[in-house]
Design a protein that fits this description.
With 476 residues, the protein is α+β, with helices and mostly antiparallel strands. It has 15 helices and 16 strands. The strands form 4 sheets. It has a 9-stranded mixed sheet. Strands 5-4-15 form a 3-stranded antiparallel sheet, with no helix packed on it. It has a two-stranded antiparallel sheet with strand order 3-16. Strand 6 and strand 7 form a beta hairpin.
Length: 476
């Protein structure tokens, strides 16, 4: 490529704490009435003093450990000063000079994307505009509920080389957030938000454009689309020899374009200084190790273990470990069925037709023992695989035992050889021309007679026996 994109991400992760970062207000405010989860601390009333949440530090350390970061024993909060209608204090409490963690990485398809820093901070409020398009809004409302909600900001190095890779990084990050329980990672609820910085290098001349920040991307798809658009826009300007402005642009969903919002701020524009109301945070090494010990098996580790322990391919292991709840349910089922390959096949072809990988599998009506019953009936030849699929669906919906469904509906395979032979003889008497054609070499007609038996028995005849008996009778 003559023009190569250079992309870095700034990601805000809402931590799954019970309370806000510096007060006792609830942190899960997504569905609450506007301005119903606020207090003097999170709205910045004079004289109110912030008290940091220990749970916020625990989740921050856990996230840093999952992302292979160096966790610092000393960190500190600072004030980031700026004015915005949904920031009542006129500043944000964040970590600028001494962040919680630095120098990490996340592997995406064997490529290490470096993480410069992870720091803790509080969220601002939310503006609700009178129109879906900001430029057309006549007025806006301010909801302070999000003020003080704890965030971990993850800043990557500019190691991402395509919009698709940016999307893959975010998808992998969300998987880790959910595995660790640090965050829900729900972009549609604002629990995972991403700003992207993109510049473009002309590889022939070595000239690099100014960096542009892109905001307001609330899905993985929109992150990819916004960066694709911005890459094309920057390349177009570079080809014309025009300057690429150093600015912040917003993704406009209605026009599928980015729109200029403001010139890009520098760090000194925020006039950072140490937060005077919160002393420095000092962790002992023992405390950090105690939190790191809570780190569960992560997606890459589980993926490799599933391949090795259950003899699965990359595709099967990838899907089965896509969420921790799906992986856990699979392992519970395998423990009972003792048949990883068959269990994997039924998960991929049947279970995931009715349940998403994000489902609460404890709430499903189908249980591990149902898989065992179904496999046993197939292995013993009591039901065909086609019948088993129908039984599975009914078990999934009703929670009834597969064996009970088979008994109540009379779905057992017909293995009575005399009955099968009788049906075949009647078919041969009815279609003597087909019999003669078969004997003259048109062996594909075997399927005609086998199909007739299956129709007569409503699909319950043993296909192997039907084929065997049909060949014998037609050969006579």
């Amino acid at each position: 490529m003559k023009f190569k994109p250079v992309i870095g991400l700034e990601i805000h992760v809402q931590l799954n704490t019970k309370t806000k970062a510096f007060c006792s207000c609830p942190s899960d405010v997504f569905e609450l009435e506007p301005n119903s989860a606020i207090c003097p601390i999170c709205t910045g009333q004079p004289g109110a003093l912030p008290v940091p949440s220990e749970e916020m530090f625990e989740y921050g350390i856990l996230l840093a450990a999952a992302l292979n970061c160096k966790i610092h024993e000393y960190s500190r909060f600072d004030r980031k000063n700026y004015f915005y209608p949904d920031l009542p204090k006129g500043y944000q409490i964040t970590q600028f000079f001494y962040p919680l963690a630095t120098d990490g990485y996340l592997k995406v398809k064997e490529k290490r994307i470096r993480i410069r820093r992870i720091h803790l901070e509080e969220d601002a409020g939310k503006l609700i505009h009178s129109s879906e398009t900001i430029t057309e809004a006549s007025h806006s409302f301010v909801d302070m509920n999000r003020c003080g909600v704890p965030l971990a900001e993850i800043v990557t190095e500019p190691d991402i080389s395509s919009p698709q890779e940016a999307r893959e990084f975010l998808e992998k990050l969300r998987q880790i957030l959910r595995y660790t329980g640090v965050s829900t990672g729900d972009m549609e609820k604002g629990a995972l938000r991403c700003d992207a910085n993109i510049s473009v290098i002309d590889t022939e001349t070595g000239i690099q454009s100014n960096k542009v920040e892109v905001k307001n991307m609330n899905s993985f798809k929109f992150v990819e689309k916004a960066l694709e658009y911005e890459y094309r826009r920057i390349v177009s300007l570079m080809k014309k020899g025009e300057e690429v402005k150093k600015e912040t642009r917003g993704w406009d969903l209605s026009s599928k374009t980015t729109i200029s919002m403001r010139s890009k701020e520098e760090a000194n524009d925020y006039r950072y200084f140490p937060e005077p109301d919160i002393p420095p945070v000092i962790f002992s090494r023992d405390y950090i190790e105690k939190i790191k010990a809570k780190l569960p098996e992560l997606p890459d580790e589980k993926f490799e273990r599933f391949k090795k322990a259950y003899k699965l391919g990359d595709y099967e292991a990838g899907i089965l470990t896509s969420t921790v709840q799906l992986a856990d349910f699979f392992e519970r089922c395998v423990k009972i069925t003792n048949n990883p390959k068959e269990t994997s096949n039924w998960f991929l072809t049947e279970l995931l037709r009715f349940a998403s990988p994000e489902a609460d599998f404890d709430e499903l009506k189908i249980k591990p023992e149902h898989f065992k019953e179904l496999f046993e009936m197939i292995e013993k030849g009591e039901i065909s695989r086609n019948i088993a699929k129908n039984v599975f669906e009914e078990t999934f919906v009703s929670g009834k035992s597969p064996r009970k469904i088979v008994e109540e509906k009379g779905l057992k395979i017909v293995g009575d050889e005399s009955l099968i032979e009788d049906i075949l003889k009647k078919l041969m008497e009815k279609y003597p021309d087909k019999v003669q054609e078969y004997k003259n070499g048109k062996t594909g007609l075997l399927g005609f007679f086998v199909g007739g038996v299956m129709r007569e028995t409503k699909g319950k005849a043993d296909p192997r026996k039907v084929n065997e008996i049909a060949r014998r009778l037609l050969a006579d």
